[in-house]
Amino acid sequence: MRSGDSSLATDPMLLRNLAEFFGVDRDYLLDDAGEIPMLVDAQLELLRTLRESRVRNFAARQLQGISPETLVRLRQVIDERKRAQEVEDAESN
After folding, report:
1. Mean pLDDT, residues 30-34 taken together
2. Of 7, 62, 79, 91, whose CB has the highest number of CB atoms within 10 Å?
3. CA-CA distances (angstroms) from residue 84 to 24, 42, 78, 79, 81?
4. What is the pLDDT of residue 25?
5. Is 43's pLDDT higher than 80?
6. d(Cα 86, Cα 93) in Å, to the nearest integer?
7. What per-residue confidence (pLDDT) applies to 48?
8. Is the pLDDT reported for residue 74 higher than 80?
9. Does position 28 have pLDDT exceeding 70, yes or no?
10. DSSP code for 34
11. What is residue 6's DSSP assignment?
12. Which residues lie below 8 Å from residue 48, measured CB to CB, with a gap of 6+?
């Protein structure tokens, strides 16, 4: 079921029971084209942004002896990687 290859991964009764057990909306597991998956995607994107911000903040705090140019370049690399990931995500959809 973890890999999504098993018939259990799409069994509606099992998915309903799992949703009830974990206290989430059944549509979260059953409806892959509705509003909830869009919400989850938006939440994941926000988490990615926050994680990247933490990397930037960490770099700014920990790399005190590094030149401003190097810090700017680090930020650019993170931004470039984010844009590349967005392109990859768009192409896979």
Report:
1. 69
2. 79
3. 32, 18, 10, 9, 5
4. 80
5. no
6. 11
7. 78
8. no
9. yes
10. S
11. S
12. 82, 85
Tokens 């967005």 — which residue?
86
Q: Where are the alpha helices (DSSP H) in the chain?
A: 12-22, 26-30, 35-62, 68-92
- Among the listed residues 85, 90, 91, the one whose alpha carbon sits nearest the alpha carbon of residue 48: 85
CB 71 within 8 A of CB 52: no
d(CA 62, CA 56): 10
3-class secondary-structure state, position 23:
coil
Identify residue 29 by its one-letter amino acid code: L
Tokens describing residue 29: 């597991």
The residue behind tokens 């509705």 is 34
Token readout for 1 is 């079921």
pTM of this structure: 0.36
Q: Which of 31, 33, 37 is nearest to 15 (CA)?
A: 31
Please, are residues 19 and 26 in contact by the beta-carbon 8 Å criterion? yes
